[in-house]
């Protein structure tokens, strides 16, 4: 349970970064959201064996990281936390797809290994982009921007409430597990058969809590629309950011940027 | 200003399963009064409070706030003039930061942004919590959560404040600060609590509830010194009115 607790406090730490000031922090959340969405689309649009062509996208992330003054180590830590999912997703590729597609010097590279690496690169790119968005904007502002850009109202409310009550829910879960283990000194963790009733109780408590929160919302005039105080201000910088980033993404995707960078460096070296 | 008045007449409420939670409850609270509602667990205090802002609607009888009856159609007006502070501040603070939470009510009243801002500022200032403005509620202490919760109700500029167990779970100094804070408010106040000493300090008038009915309604000094009445209602004398526990350790009741 403490591991869950650490994960939750990590979310919190990420959000605290969002209160810093930097050129990236000052951009309109909508601009950052749109660019992040374009970035994700670009990443998934590459063909499966296309590893090299994706590499220039790291430049974009590095620029955001530097301009936004976001600690790279922290980002790396989150990536490590999430990487088991990506490893699992690509685990069987090298076993299934054994066709040799290219040679790295004397080393034969099969399609499976290449697509495995491709999955890892895509994972790093997409997760970093989303983490950077959160660290430079903050969870609430991202949700508000989603709402402004026309995301379904209920979804936005769900996201916001999730962020508030995940902390209370984990607290409650932790107390229940502690109460269980105090009365079972031999078994520090509840046995599998106890999880059903623990989860059931947690659900009932969450349901009760939900009703009380809803009552409290109604008492303050809630009518189904969640209104947030912060207004957004779209400025020239935002337009430039969206235009510049889209231009770079297009160039990276269709302009063979990786090959060109390669050629330039070769020429410089020669 | 007649809209600060609360009038409850022969109120009856049954839960969906038919259990009567309130029976024949009647009282009238005048402008600027501060009234304590006390009674054992399950006496119907919280159920009664939920009727005052229309979260529950009477099965029988009427509730009026000022000139307006509490009905489904009048809920908007009622909730604007009655500010409710619920027992668990975690239920009341549901937005990601204190500022957004305090702004929640004014935004639902469709006020222009400048007015929302000034109300948020004023409400937080009134509870001395301007420094909590940008904090997320999960990182506040119990006392801070309570003051933030009070600010969320104040920002709607209510005429009447309804508080359910406001001192529950507070440490002694936080409780004292809360009492001083509430004492400074000019609103009509209705406070349900087991903290009889707080009621004694804040409310000149007290209503005792027992099994869904009112068994006493009078001056707090009289009601809270009637040992028999209190015992019958599952209560006891306020600690302040009991003997000194150190001088009279064996018989604190005498």
Please provide the ordered H/E string of secondary-structure elements of chain A: HHHHHHEEHHHHHH
Number of domains of chain A: 2
Radius of gyration of chain B equals: 19 Å
What's the overall average pLDDT of chain B, rounded?
A: 90
Helix tally of chain A equals 12
**Low-confidence parts of chain A lasting 5 or more residues at pLDDT below 50?**
none
In order across it, which strands form the biggest sheet of chain A? 1-2
Beta-strand percentage range of chain A: under 5%
On the 0 to 100 scale, the average pLDDT of chain A is 85
Question: How many E-type strands of chain B?
Answer: 10
Number of strands of chain A: 2
End-to-end separation of chain A: 58 Å
Order of helices and strands of chain B: EEEHEEHEHHHHEHEHEEHH
CATH class identity of the domain at 2-91 and 160-241 in chain B: Alpha Beta
Q: Which word captures the global form of chain A?
A: globular
Model regions low in confidence, pLDDT < 50 over at least 5 residues of chain B: none
Binned, the helix content of chain B reads 25-40%
Main beta sheet strand tally, sense and closure of chain A:
2 strands, antiparallel
Terminal CA distance of chain B: 46 Å
State the helical fraction of chain A. Answer: over 70%
The CATH homologous superfamily of the domain at 2-91 and 160-241 in chain B is named P-loop containing nucleotide triphosphate hydrolases
